[in-house]
User: Fold this.
Amino acid sequence: MNNGEIVLGLSAHFFNWEALPLAFKVAVDPRVETVYLKVNNPFFEKLMRIIRKRFGGYLVERANFQRHFLKHRKTPRLIGLAADQRPSRQETRYWTPFMNKKTSFFEGPEKLAKRFGLSLFFSKVHKPKRGYYEYTLYPLGQPPFSEKDHSITDRFIQLVEQNIKEEPPLYLWSHNRWKNSP
Assistant:
């Protein structure tokens, strides 16, 4: 990020994932963009935008991300993605075991990194005590990449599973990763 590059930061839905962009802003002070899924209720959409932007983060709605990325592809920044979202049936192309059950995953972060030569890392969360969170960064890949499909996604999944096994109460189980089946 300090070398004038775009970096993808992948995380999972661990409590408090809203604190992660703040941690990056404090630690390295890059331009931090968070890709988010718009909330259907206007009141809660406005509230979530206020919460997510209050420490200087920049939000990009998922539906507009591709256009926004291409428009700003020369702007150095950290792009944060909670990459464990459940794709819709139309978006699903990659099924793989996750927590011992066949689960769908987005391919976007890996395809984006390989196409544009972006480095990626995973942010593991640990809660040592109430109100305190520690984030550890693990490299997921950097250019040049191997041509093996899903190698980055598989590594991401492995690290998410490891984080869940170490901190099961912190994972957002309610977002129902297994709603769809192959």
Notes: The CA atoms of residues 27 and 83 lie 22 Å apart. The beta strands are 6-11, 32-36, 58-61, 77-82, 94-98, 101-105, 119-129, 132-141.
